[in-house]
Design goal:
2 copies of one chain form a homodimer.
Chain A lengths: L1 E3 L11 E6 L13 E16 L7 H11 L5 E7 L8 H19 L6 E5 L9 H14 L4 H10 L8 E9 L2 E10 L12 E6 L5 H13 L16 E6 L12 H24 L7 E9 L2 H13 L1 H8 L5 H9 L11 E4 L2 E5 L2 E2 L4 H8 L3 E7 L5 E8 L3 H7 L3
Parallel strand pairs in A: 4-5, 8-9, 10-14
Antiparallel strand pairs in A: 1-6, 2-3, 3-4, 3-9, 6-7, 7-8, 10-15, 11-12, 11-14, 12-13
Chain lengths: 406, 406
């Protein structure tokens, strides 16, 4: 597999076109790109993973039903930032359909061949005429050059500070297949899913159900393991489109090619998830919380999540304070039956606690590690063989200041 | 019932003595009172409620076993701040026993008549010789005047900004019974239990099991419903001592007196819990989150806790932003099966959302309400008849700054 850590990933696979325009969704007249389209002339198979929040935005409810059908194919994804079209009632559903109709009319495709994602503030009706005007502009702009992909990447951002993309190429029996992905964060993030939107394009051919399996596995080990603020959004969505333009069909390839396709999607999701955490709102540190020796996967993830979401732990990371006591406290309230006397902790490779005994001689080394912009915390529970991992970050004063009003 | 919102509550009931001294637990030489004793000449029945964290401090493990015995009686509680004696292994257990022995020796009582509570930083051994010296000083100081109670109240504080106490008097067949309580917070607070320590004294006579029932009910509806930062501590403890000095025996009183005793303990726990939230670390607002129309109690509390612990919701409270979208989002990820179209929300009495429709004409009123230092948020789920309530507060930049290192 060849892997590229950024770039104009969405149009790297053959046959994909993108656009991104400013249609002033927020009424801020700031020129920010806020509406984008991904388009493929060839029909695409697709799969999606969506927020499991009880409250789901109109575009989530709409797109979820469409991709659930194993036979459907698609030509386009419409995405806008600045307004989530969530908690907007019947009007939100109507507005969503108006956008779908406008995309279908402009691109000369069927309405049920369009998927939609929105992100931004909850509970405010869309300025629908500005959005339909934006769809007309974007449809005219659609290009398969990198500038289209670049504009799309910008159009989906909200509080993100940078675009986040990556791509991979794998060898198949018929030559090369390319997979590209982009993601936006950056608040209300504890996917399962978080308003995180991620889009993946590929020129392999694949059935919807096969794509769904590959995508779900990848999401489970990437986006579903990150947390910025523990707040799961109403709009989280990951979509993959496969247009077959490479001429290569997943089902006709050898097991080993199928495996390397799954690995590439995995690598893309992991890379995007990591970028998402690193670009979390007002974040200064990226921290991997790894649990080992748990009874089972569920309890490993419970402990990892309690640590990753603890305000006290996150505050201490912000302050570069090697405060293992707060980590132990958070692990304890996961209530998986752990015993402090069995617990060992490491900062990166450096032992902090060995079977409940602090190794204070390493103290200056601890401080050095947690002062870095990136480090790992490893907890060995000594209860079994299961492992779990969550990617988290620190909580800064700036986060609170940033989110105290919208 | 007569109720007093503050005062030197612990020595209000007959026969209780208190002391509080500086023994320099933290080695800061700042003169802060950091060790206290509550003492009753008459033996006391007792009950306790303790943290359910998997990791429990030495004093919790010790005291929990002692009060579990339905027959035991006690003469003293020792409490220290500045060091939690948690995650300190065998040495922690030994140090705890040394303190117990010193109290017993000084007050001429049995070792198993002493309960212990500690609060402060986790994972550091106690400076035991300073603590035993403090116990000698405190034992000499013990007085039943208000100055003893006042000193004790101060000695248990950590990041609290003020002492927190209240008392109640109820009429019985034999005259008056008094109940007094104190509490300390102020971080790592989501009891179930949080390092929250609360002490209640009363001059009624009562069996341990009867006290346990009254205390557990009261804690369930007070301390177990508050959250400051969602972090449950290793040391949370609520203890009640009943010395019978009033001559009145709970079991011999009428049902109506028994009820008013339970109500008084309830009122004391509620008052202390509320004070604890209001004095949370760097808090500027007190917010009651009330859920109505839930399927059952568990799901009502789940929704209330998701809202109360959401960083985005807490940040918006800090900024006086009436951001109902974040409330809906947090309610949705409690995953109790709620439907947005059935949801109504009120800020105090003012409707915000009626069956999923925002009443934007009230917008200026919303802003006015959430700008106050105290308000309620009421969610009507329309799924059943169960209710739930959590008392919470905002998250400030100062909280993060305060907790970024110890």
């Amino acid at each position: 597999m060849k892997f590229y850590e950024d770039g104009e990933a969405l149009t790297d696979p053959q046959g994909f076109f993108c656009a991104g325009v400013h249609c002033d969704v927020k009424g801020a007249r700031d020129g920010k790109l806020d509406l984008g389209i991904i388009y493929s002339k060839k029909p695409c198979n697709a799969a999606g993973v969506f927020t499991t929040n009880d409250v789901q935005a109109a575009p989530v409810r709409y797109s979820k039903i469409l991709v659930a059908d194993g036979e459907s194919t698609f030509h386009a994804i419409l995405a806008n930032s600045g307004n989530a079209n969530a908690c907007t009632g019947q009007q939100g559903e109507n507005d969503n359909l108006k956008m779908v109709s406008e995309v279908a009319r402009q691109l000369n495709i069927e309405k049920n061949e369009v998927l939609v994602c929105s992100t931004g503030r909850i509970g405010i009706p869309l300025p629908i005429s500005r959005l339909t005007a934006g769809i007309r502009d974007a449809s005219e702009d659609i290009v398969d050059e990198c500038e289209g992909a670049r504009a799309f990447q910008k159009a989906i951002l909200t509080s993100d500070t940078c675009t986040k993309s990556c791509s991979a190429k794998i060898k198949t029996s018929l030559g090369e297949v390319t997979i590209g992905g982009v993601v936006k964060g950056a608040g209300m993030i504890e996917p399962n899913m978080a308003t995180m939107l991620a889009f993946i394009t590929t020129d392999i051919g694949a059935k919807n159900m096969a794509l769904k399996k590959v995508l779900s596995d990848a999401v489970e080990h990437s986006f579903n393991r990150i947390t910025i603020d523990g707040d799961m959004s109403t709009n989280d969505t990951v979509l993959i489109l496969a247009n077959g333009a490479s001429g290569c069909e997943l089902s006709k390839e050898s097991k080993s090619v199928q495996k390397s396709f799954a690995e590439a999607v995995n690598a893309i999701c992991s890379c995007l998830a990591r970028k998402c955490v690193t670009d979390g709102e007002k974040v200064t540190k990226f921290v991997k919380v790894k649990i080992k020796g748990a009874k089972d996967d569920t309890s490993a993830m419970k402990v990892a999540r309690c640590i990753s979401n603890s305000l006290l732990v996150k505050s201490s990371w912000y302050g570069s304070d090697p405060n293992w006591g707060r980590i132990v406290d958070a692990a304890g309230y996961a209530k998986v039956g752990l015993s402090f006397e069995e617990l060992s902790i490491f900062y990166n490779e450096c032992p902090v606690l060995k079977n409940g005994k602090p190794l204070v001689e390493n103290k200056s080394k601890w401080k050095e590690i947690v002062s870095a912009k990136e480090f790992s915390i490893i907890l060995e529970l000594n209860m079994g063989n299961a492992v779990g991992e969550v990617w988290s970050n620190d909580l800064s004063e700036e986060y609170v200041n940033f989110n105290k009003s919208e």
